[in-house]
Amino acid sequence: MIDRKGYVEHVVVGDAHRIELPDLQRTRIAADRFRGLRCIHTHLRGEDLTTDDLTDLALLRLDLMAALDVDERSGLPGVVRAAHLLPATPTEIGAGLNGEQTAPYVFLDAKLPSQLDVDFLELVNSLEEEMARNRRVGRQAEARDRAILVGVTTGLLSEAEESMAELRELAASAGVVVLDSIIQRRPAIDPRTLLG
To answer: Where are the domains of the chain?
Structure first.
């Protein structure tokens, strides 16, 4: 584990299959910041970042997760495969309600160590600035009313969709955040379950 100043914070020895990362509870972390640590480790078989690598990246909120390929015979380095977290926007967070999932990270191009040309500090600072902006926007959105729009029709579905689109526009103009919308087509309206 390396901090942003380039100092080695933790050295971990694992086996050919996995490593156990140290307890990072004492290092700084805020809602709109990363942990300030990069995890750089080796892969012996030239594989991409594993699911465990990406899970650690997300749960520990590391600045970067990088795997350096190492030739077992010669010990020479191969390519570096890395990923970093993406700042989630309030829209993307809300997208999870509809069952859609977007990856919370992005992969950098695999390159030889001598060909890495990413200004890491600039990248992390810009990501944290975007996280802070998104957090402010998210707080403003949290303060607004939210609604799930429900429509029931016995007529044509196209007419109900037009009506729902108009209702969505009315909600937006009233400052209401629409979380989801549902249209149900019924053969007849049941007065016992009708809500209006």
So the answer is: 2-142, 144-185
